[in-house]
Amino acid sequence: MKKNISVISMDSVLQEWLLQKLIKEPPESDSAKELLSGIYDMVSGEVNSLLLSTVKNSEIASLNLSDEMKIGELVINPKSRSVTRMGQAVSLTPKEFDILYFLAENRGEVFTKEQIYKAVWSENYLLDDSNIMAFIRKLRKKIEPNPDEPKYILTIWGIGYKFNDKV
């Protein structure tokens, strides 16, 4: 099965190296200027991540990447960073929303706690499994019809979590 997304941490040394490499030796590519601009944005702190894709810009528009996701009783809207369940607004903290959106965007894929942490936080992973577990527990209380028998965010024992792709 092909992975939907791969998260790779990029430190300031790598950002600076890429920036200098693109300035000094720009490749003959239509995307080079766009990548250079994205790296500038990262170095300046305007953004903390970039999404690199082999999908062409003309195809991205048809993917509806920013449109809301309807999954069972949930509606997740990344533009407004809002979630509703059965038409009722669900109040999430920014990190709860980020975790939910990351898992929902990658439905069916199992992630370790470390992978979830690296995808949502820009800092290095802290060896504290209880942090992610607490966020998942709070999320389940807010989005699951029965948090003790989750139907959206599933625990894969011994590995981590996944968003149910059967909903």
TrEMBL record:
Q: Which PANTHER family match?
A: REGULATOR OF RPOS, RESPONSE REGULATOR SAER
Feature: DNA-binding region: 66-165
This one is known as: Winged helix-turn-helix domain-containing protein
Which keywords describe this protein according to UniProt? DNA-binding
Q: Which residues form the OmpR/PhoB-type domain?
A: 66-165
Q: Which PROSITE patterns match?
A: OMPR_PHOB
According to its UniProt entry, this protein's organism is Ventrimonas faecis
Q: Which Gene3D superfamilies match?
A: Winged helix-like DNA-binding domain superfamily/Winged helix DNA-binding domain
**InterPro entries xref list:** OmpR/PhoB-type_DNA-bd (IPR001867), Sig_transdc_resp-reg_C-effctor (IPR016032), WalR-like (IPR039420), WH-like_DNA-bd_sf (IPR036388)
Q: Which Pfam families match?
A: Trans_reg_C
